[in-house]
Amino acid sequence: MTRIALEHLHKTYPRQAAPALERLSLEVEAHTLMALLGPSGSGKSTILKLIAGIEDPDQGDICFDGQSILRIPAHRRGAVLMFQKAYLFPFLSVADNIAFGLRAKGVNKATIQTEVQRMLDLVGLPEMAHRRPAQLSGGEQQRIALARALVVQPQVLMLDEPFSSLDPAVRQNLQEAVRRIQRELGITTILVTHDRSEALAMADQVALIEQGTLVAHAPPQQLYERPPHRQAARQMGIDTFLTGRVTGTTLQSQFGPLTVSETPGHGGEALYAIRPEHLRLGHEPGAHSLPVTVQSQIYRGDHVEVQVSLGETVLRVRTNEACWSNGKRVFLHLPPEHLFLLKLPGS
Ligand SMILES: Nc1ncnc2c1ncn2[C@@H]1O[C@H](COP(=O)(O)OP(=O)(O)OP(=O)(O)O)[C@@H](O)[C@H]1O
């Protein structure tokens, strides 16, 4: 039942010119999973380190259910952290690894035994109690690390890229397990990732972090389908932006006139975006098309990524056909219903 509030967090590491976090505020509702998504070095792990008490903020506050935790020592905050590597104790059995935190708390032997088995069942490895970490696969080690983190019944679970060293099948399997367990226990969880699909698949809310600041946060589908501004749209994989004035339903874009169905309600400059999978390529012009030149085509199994140039601008199109030869003049279709408005910078 823990709601986390990060309030104007500011952190500059010693001998660093730029702050790792710049007055960042964010709330994580109780029982939910918040994914922090952002490029390398954007400050995601620093947020976890501040919550865990590994580092202290220069300014700002961190509250659990309205109470500041900054004066509470790290080991009493009830926040556990799981990393990319499992860091299990190699000479202890799986059961002893999981029991470690309970022994440190002086919990009696019978309770420890029950709790360890409960955790092994929870992470789907009920028969593994007597194995050593070296006898487990990478995915199994991560499940044991999760069991070890959860056995102490923490208030907050923090996951720092816990799946990034695993192969895709194991990774998906563990993502699903973590999501199931998180929901079952209702534990407030923060997941750090730079994998967009992972954030979208797992989170109740996704927070986009860039250069130590919060760019946007919203439920995954909302953020993916309607990012609020260009910066968020870029992080959601969009790179086709159109600007210009709208008269009636015609956008006088930098590439030529285009029909839009959503209009800004003012006569000034407007900014539109369209997802790569909503762009269409064709050999014939149409009502909502622009002439482009094919630059390259990359076959990606479930889709083909085609890069086309429109004057100086290069755009990415996601299609199902691999028939676009380099240098060919074709037509890029922009369905009006998929062109959506973004906030203009400073608005
Ligand atoms: N202990 C430290 N001392 C000095 N600078 C640090 C330290 N830890 C992090 N930084 C710097 O702070 C910034 C934010 O780092 P942080 O690890 O929080 O980013 P991140 O988004 O988690 O990156 P990644 O995805 O690569 O793990 C980076 O510029 C990094 O170099």
UniProtKB/TrEMBL annotation:
Keywords: ATP-binding, Cell membrane, Ion transport, Iron, Iron transport, Membrane, Nucleotide-binding, Transport. PANTHER family: SPERMIDINE/PUTRESCINE IMPORT ATP-BINDING PROTEIN POTA, SPERMIDINE_PUTRESCINE IMPORT ATP-BINDING PROTEIN POTA. One of its GO terms (molecular function) is ABC-type ferric iron transporter activity. Signal peptide: none annotated. This is ABC-type quaternary amine transporter. InterPro entries: AAA+_ATPase (IPR003593), ABC_SmlMolc_Importer (IPR050093), ABC_transporter-like_ATP-bd (IPR003439), ABC_transporter-like_CS (IPR017871), ABC_transpr_FbpC (IPR015853), Mo/tungstate-bd_C_term_dom (IPR008995), P-loop_NTPase (IPR027417), Transp-assoc_OB_typ2 (IPR013611). Residues 4-236 form the ABC transporter domain. It is an enzyme of class 7 (translocase). One of its GO terms (cellular component) is ATP-binding cassette (ABC) transporter complex. SMART domains: AAA. Its EC number is 7.6.2.9.
